Amino acid sequence: MKVSLADLITGTKEGKLVSFPTDTVPALATLPSKAELIFAAKQRSLDKPLILMAAKAEDLWSYIQGSDLEYQTWQKVVNKYWPGGLTLVLPASEKLPKVMNPIDPTTIGIRVPNSAIALTILAQTGPLATTSANLSNQPPLQTSSEIEATFPGILTLKSTEYQGLGIPSTVAKWTGTDWQILRQGGIKLDNSDSIVNY
């Protein structure tokens, strides 16, 4: 159902499943506590965790945990690449709802997108459980019409172009000292993005 930006934000706060554009591919999103709606709609395996997306890094830090040195390293990386197409998989804190990553709730992927519309929504709703808008194992959908056809009843934005880069975000998992690339997107990390002096 196509709605205004204000109605989409209200619906999101009420725990509905929504879709909005990002800088990479359109997102399916809902409150973290309602993440099971995404798994059900996408027919997604529970061993594929969701991404926690927010308007700024400060909104995400309470959902993760690490040493002071790790936080400094992570902060340096987000200062360099966010907002943008980089998802960091980090150790999760107790605050994270287990439904975000049912099989392994000890980690969570976090991201701040480089999209004015997405940032406007996230600034109003707080961090959201997100993933690409598509059925599991299918290519990401690129337009609101495709998304509505695939997911009837979810809220999408009317009169908004949904096209991002069309390339999913780079996904980098923290190993304790450096990054393991789980999916290569448009952003490439380099050696300076790891803990150098340990």
- By CATH reckoning, the class would read Alpha Beta
The name CATH uses for the topology is: DHBP synthase
Mean pLDDT: 93
Individual helix count: 5
> Termini, distance in Å?
52 Å
Query: Helix coverage percent of residues?
Result: 10-25%
The description of the largest β-sheet is:
8 strands, mixed
Low-confidence stretches: none
Question: What is the strand arrangement across the widest sheet?
Answer: 2-3-7-4-6-5-9-10
Mass-distribution shape: globular
CATH superfamily: DHBP synthase
Total strand segments: 10
SSE-based structural type: alpha/beta
Give Rg in angstroms: 16 Å
Give me the strand/helix succession: EHEEHEHEEHEHEEE
How many independent structural domains?
Answer: 1
**Beta-strand proportion:** 15-25%
CATH architecture field: Alpha-Beta Complex
What does this structure look like?
- With 198 residues, the chain is of the alpha/beta class.
- 24% of the residues lie in helices and 20% in strands.
- It is built from five helices and ten strands.
- The protein has helices at residues 5-13, 36-42, 68-81, 116-125, 144-150, and strands at 2-3, 18-20, 27-30, 51-53, 86-91, 107-111, 128-132, 156-157, 170-174, 179-183.
Descriptors for this entry?
198 residues, two-stranded parallel sheet, globular, 20% strand
Describe what is shown at a glance.
The chain is an alpha/beta fold. The protein has a single domain (2-193), classed as DHBP synthase (Alpha-Beta Complex), CATH 3.90.870. 24% of the residues lie in helices and 20% in strands.
